Amino acid sequence: MESVFFFASKIVWALITPGSLLVTLGMAAWLSLIAGWQKMSRFFLSLTALLLLLVGTLPLGEWLIYPLENRFAANAALPMSPAGVIVLGGAVNPALSDTWGQTEIGDAAERLTAFMYLANLYPDAQLVFTGGSGSITEQAYKEADYTRFLFEQLDMGERAIIYESESRNTAENALHSKTLLNPQAGEEWILITSAFHMPRAVGVFCKVGWPVTPYPVDHYSEKDELLRVNYRFSGNLRTLETAIREWVGLLAYRITGRTDRLLPGDQNACGIESDA
């Protein structure tokens, strides 16, 4: 069932991504014009132009992503002596790394830098990297392999780091990592991932019975400047796609039972209320 879910999620997202929607509307306007449907063509063209204007000038993606990034506090208090530190993959492009023979880091590089920071802060903690490949066609290239190479280049080779390389999504990150590590009740583990992704990640780890302390990084929203107008189409579209994909992922994980709540946060992580 995990494989069915993985393939279905990739196909559905490819069809509903905002960029694909804009292309579809533009094609619909052109085909309607060719067919002589003038009113229909004007409708699709007007809708396309309106969406291009809104996406290009307003931080729509930040409006959607800020509620996710605000679920867990940045730089919150950390455990004194955690059993381990876990970082989710997503920062390294394994196929591109294979092409050039070196680790190619893209978005979410803060996941790796935060991991290195906490590795130095907790010299006795077990370190865990979990991430294989999220691509349908490039499963031969594993993110964990090139992350291992990067950490060895950065003189982290002496630390005992466990690399989990078979997971394809967040649900498998939690399942495979728990199988490898067998965490015990009462142990404290720190989880690093992008702030917008932390609610889903925490929900998945809680679902498999592994409470974690969130350490969110890689923020997208300028929380004090959300009401602004400027033209930055490519950046705005990218953030919008990230936000919509994460909200769709949250809904899909909740509906399919991979999490037991839609939006875990500081006050309800793993269903435990804080004393605050």
UniProtKB/TrEMBL annotation:
Coiled-coil boundaries: none
GO cellular component: plasma membrane
Ranges annotated as spanning the membrane: 12-31, 43-66
Pfam family name, one: DUF218
Ribosomal protein recorded as keyword: no
DUF218 domain mapped to chain residues: 85-249
Protein name, UniProt field: YdcF family protein
Organism: OM182 bacterium
